[in-house]
Every structure is written in structure tokens, then in C-alpha cells.
Amino acid sequence: MGISILQLSDLHFTQANNSILKKIEKVVDAIKNEIEDSTYLFLVFSGDIAFSGNKSEYEIAERFIYDLKDKISAYVKDIRIELIFTPGNHDCDFSDNQEVRNILIDKILKDPSSITEQLILTCTAVQKDFFEFVEKLNSKENIMHELSNALFRRYNYNIDGYKLAFNSYNLAWVSKKNESQSEIVYPTSFINKSDISNDEYDLTISLFHHPLHWLEHSNMRQFKELINSTSNIVLSGHEHTHSAKKESKINNENHIEYIESGVLQDLHDIDNSSFNLININLNDNKQDIIEFNWNVNLYEKKDTYNDIELPFRKKSIYQLKDNYKNKINTMGLKVSHPTKDNMTLEDIFIYQDVTAINTNKKQISASLESSSEQLKNIHMLGHTIIYGAETSGKTSLIRMLQLKYKRDGLVPIVINGKDIKSNDFHANKIKTFILKAFKTQYEHTLQTISSFEQLDKNQIILFVDDFQDSSLNTEYKSVLITNLLKLNYDNLVIFAHDSLLLEATTESLLAKSLVDFNHYQLLELGHKLREKMIRKWISLGKETEIDHKDLIFIAREKSKSINTTIGYNIVPAYPIYILTLLQALEANDSHMLEKSSYGHYYHFLIMQYLNADKLMKISDINTIMKYTSTLAFECLKNKKYTFTYQDLLAFDKVYCQEKLFDPTFNIIEKL
């Protein structure tokens, strides 16, 4: 299984006299027999595609790229060609007055902490034509839009089971017309390392234009740490010289490759032209790195490194089952969005605020609010319990934290309170239901299970959801927690209904077992978080198209309507209700939800689900309502709240017999 990377850097297209246009066929001749065994060819442009960053130059670059693709495809017919970009300093259009921008950049250099989103938008305005050019050519389906912005772009690929990622960093956002080394600052705080450091990926390739020593010294250390901890191969350009080196730490068996490309088009010397080709054999974990240099009338190999060990990171042996991973990333309800099909939880999820609860009655302290996003820092987990109302978003938070920590290479396990039975408080029983949860959520063999049982406890994170639903009474809930703590798990996070809050923070046995826990309560969404969720909703499916000003305007209008509705009635500002209102606004049904109660919201969601495929007849909807009402009554009467498919079939048979009912459609399948 082979892939190839053609690294082209410093193309410097101008409006005239582009010598590289006459060398396109020579580029193809140089690589065509080298890539015959590859199924994918990635054309990676590591900056300076244009010379002055203006539209007319990109139009020439676009024709060059299409011509290059066509000629390669004509010879290697079954190869799939993908385009990956990062901007360089010449991709900035400095034709307008830069006085204000230069003042801002000087301010950034003196105080990097002053960087804001608005400042980034101002500084990247000079790259407008570059961004428009890239949008025409990018493979949009391979871009992770939720991670991508003006300073960073993530491309994901799954090639016959091998997962590849390209991380493109925009170092040129603070480039000046006359720039010097150590004058670039990249705000690493705007990148969440855990989001891009995913142990499920076999190979991560990072690209940026300027080599590391062009960054301001202290910022260079921060940026290099980010790159080294999230990359296998690093591609750059700018200095018009080729180099390839390997870097590793003494105590780390993984290594990182830094590959710098020479200049493809030197406007001062038409004979100075070079590029790199990297051929990767994913099955053998080997690669060839070839530098091609122009010599008289063809590109010849200059430096060649054959059968180099590929810098794969070792994948964790603990992998979530695909069906489980898909399940925890689903919305849990039918969501209709105008531009985004198959919306996932990650698409719309935001971290709610929490308030710390003081359980020490001898101390008087103010209520401290913070973001639940702090739980993404493992040092903030420890032993924690979080309370929240029904439908407040507790389960969604657990799911996102499990995905996050799994990507960090840890083994997060979710235990549902309903699965904790009356005799599960013993230490040996606890080990059994933890292992059962592991086998339910993770791919496993006998070897994997043995390895898990021997794994350091600090590598495992236990999440307990709906703790209040355990069959245990209060006394034995406290015994369960005490025995859990005796197993010495560093990170144990319990989620429970608000109804447990009083008992867990007073002079009860349960409170004593939780005395060393951090206690938090999940809050409703305030104005800022509501607007953040609304902006996410508006941007979905058109992240690369919607203008920032339009986004702000549309979000403001939707916020007014939603804030009015929330302010007038008893509906809480939890994500599920904001989501329901957003759907209602899209369907122009917002009047139906004004001054309404929970029941109206659930009714709206039910109707959205029933009519998702096609509009149902009113008689059929009434049939379903009567059917589900009877089923709900059976739940209450028998105190049975979970059903297998066979249970539903049995209920359906009895219902049809007792009601002399012969449905015209399969109700169970519809539900």
C-alpha cells in the first residue's frame, strides 16, 4: 500500500515570465515512474505560491496546478490526487497601506498574550486572495472544519484502514514585506493539542512555510513542542535550500522528520529549481525521500534516501469499537439542519459552565463559576462529582470527555449507574463491572484484556453516568464509592442528578464518602455560550463560505428570538432546548414554542422525528401517540424503563390483540 507526497515550495507566480510553466512536463517526467505503485499522490504546497499575493497570480497558479494534475493522471491513470496548502510570506498582499497592521504586529511581538480573534482577522486580511484560491482547490470533504480556522487547517484521510492527517499552520499571518528572523509569533494557545494529537492516527504530517528559527525565540520553543508532540513528518520551505533530518529524544523511541524543500521557481535564476518526492510504503513502514534538481533540460535526482524507517507512532492497543464510537458521537435525537446532514455531537457541542460547591460548612466562600472545559486537563479531574438536572447535558459532556481522553492515548471507561446492581458494591464486583464496561466499549482479545488488567491505574479514567439510577440505596452507594477509592484510580468522575446534591453535601454517609471529591453543578447556558452554540449551528456545512460579518449578524438575530423565548417561560437554557429552538427557527415554527413548557419542546422534537423522512398522516401520528401512551403506562405500572427488541415485540402482540388493532405500517420500525 503506497502513497506519494510531491512537495512544491516557493513557486512565486507572477503575472508574467513564469519559467516553471515550461517545465511542467519535466516535473511529470521526473516523478511518473516513481509513483506508479501509489494509490494516492498528495501535492503539498509549502508556501509562497504567489509572489505578491494577488488574485491574478493565483489564477496562473490555478492553471498550473490543473495542468500538472491532468498530465500526471494521463500517465498514472488510477492514482488519486489530493491538494494540501499552507501560506508563505509572498502569499500576503501588501499593496495596501500596512501601517496599522505593522503596529499591531509589533505589539504582538512585545506581548503575545494580547492576541485575540479580532486581531487575527485583521492581520490575515492580507491573505484574502490566498484563502479564496485555496477554497477553490481544497478537498472540502477531507477538512476537519471544527478544528480549522485562519491560522490552522486539518486534513484527514482514511486509506485502506490507515489514518493520515495533514496539519497546516499559517506562520505567515504576521509576515511583513521586509521581515527578519525571530519576528514571527504563532499563538499556540489557540490550538488545543489534545484535539490534534490523536493516537488513532498512523501518520501525521505538519506543514508550514518558515523554518522554526524564523519564530521569536521563546515562541519557537512553544511551537516546536507542539509540532514535535503532534507530528511524524514536518514539511517547510522559504529558504530555497533542501534539507532532510531526523530528530528524536534520548528517552523516546519515536522520531520526527524535518524535510525542507528548495525553490521551485527562482525569479532571479531560472535554472534554480527543485522539489521533493516522498514515497511511503504503509505496509512495510518504509519511505524513500528524493530531491530533484533542474539540470539543463530535465530534473535529476540529487539527494536520495532509500528504505528509511517511517516515523510511525505506536498506536494504542486499546481502540474503541466502531459502533460504540459512532453511538457516543450521535446526537441522541433527530436533528434537522439546513446545510449539515448527519450532524454529530462534536459538530455542535460546547462546554457548559459549572459552579463549584463548597461542602465545608465551616468555610464561607463565594460561588466560583468556571468552564467544564477545564476537565479536558487531566490534572483537573482527580476525584470529581458533577450534578445536573435532567437533560442538562451531563451525558453529552461525558461522551466528549471520553473521546478526548481516548485521543490522548488514555483508556476512559463509562459506567452507567443503571448497570450497577444491588450486590455490586463489593471490591471484586466493582472490578467485574469495570471489565465488563471495558469489553463493551473497546475492541478486545485475550491479550488486550490481560494488558488492560495490568495497566497502570493512572492510564485509566472512570466516568460514572447517572449515578442516582444505581439500584443501591444511599448507604451502599457510599460503600461503593469507598471501595472504588480503595482501588486507587487517580481519576474518577461521577455524574449525578441534582436530586442527589443535598444528600451528597450534608451529614450523610454518602457525603462522608465524597468528602474529598470536588463538587460542581452544571449550569444553564449564559448569553455568551448561547451565542457560541448559535454560531456553531449557523456555520455548520458552510464554514468556508460564510463571511464573519454575516455570521455575527445572523447569530445576533437568532439570539434575540431565543433569548426572548427563554426569558418569557420556564424552559431552561440547556443545550437541548437551544437546539430545539434553532430547529424551530429554521422551520419558521418559533411561535409554537413561545411561552411554552417542556411538553411543547418534546412534542416538537417528536414531530420533527416522525416527519423526518416524509410527512405522516395525522391519523398515523395519532395511532403512534396512543400506542406510545399505552407503552409509557406499562413502564410506570411495572417500573420497567428499559426494553429489549423482543420485549417490544411481545408488547406489540398483546397491544394488537387487546385493541383489535391491525396497523397499516410497522410501528416498532418507525419508532
Task: Describe the 3D structure.
- This protein is an alpha/beta fold.
- Helix content is 37%, strand content 19%.
- The chain contains 23 helices and 19 strands.
- A 7-stranded mixed beta sheet has the order 14-13-19-15-18-17-16. The chain has a 6-stranded mixed beta sheet with strand order 3-2-1-10-11-12, covered by helices on one side. Strands 4-5-6-7-9-8 form a 6-stranded mixed beta sheet, with helices on one face.
- Strand 4 (152-159) and strand 5 form a beta hairpin.
- Helix 1 (24-31) runs parallel beside helix 2 (55-75), helix 16 (527-539) crosses helix 17 and helix 16 crosses helix 18.
- The longest helix is centred in the first third of the chain and has 21 residues, at 55-75.
- The radius of gyration is 29 Å and the shape is globular.
- The two termini are 43 Å apart.
- 33% of the residues are buried.
- Residues 362-366 have low confidence and may be disordered.
